[in-house]
Amino acid sequence: DEVDDTRKTLHYAVSELQKDVEKELLNYPESERAALRETTKFGVFVVHNKKKPKLQELDASVPYFPGADVDDVWLEYPWEATNIEEHDKLAVNGVPAN
User: Fold this and answer.
1) What sign does the dihedral 74-76-81-87 (CA atoms) show?
2) How confident is the model at residue 28 (pLDDT cuts 50, 70, 90)?
3) Considering only CA atoms, which of 67, 66, 59 is closest in space to residue 42?
């Protein structure tokens, strides 16, 4: 994900992936499910981790990799810009976009 703000989105995404794994395991013989479950691993990478209390926690078994810890400020990413040329011009001049 781009940013870990409240962690609600990350928690939801990991929970849904874990449900998908459990559903998929039903296609395998019960004797194989424990081994498959054990070898299925998830990890989370975020570009920015906002330094603030989180509303959800990730399971301790899920590795978490933040690119950078940042203060609780609004972040704008180029791929969300509606006019990339204007975004680039403002970025070069150090002007935050609105």
Assistant:
1) positive
2) very high
3) 59
Pairing of strands 44-50, 3-4: parallel
pLDDT in tens, 33-84: 999 999 999 999 999 999 999 999 999 999 999 999 999 999 988 888 888 8
Q: What tokens does 96 get?
A: 């935050």
Token pair for residue 43? 């990890």
CA–CA separation, 36 and 79 (whole Å): 37
- Looking at residue 79, the DSSP 8-state letter turns out to be G
**Of residues 46, 77, 68, 75, the one with CA closest to residue 88:** 77
Q: Which residues are catalytic?
A: 5
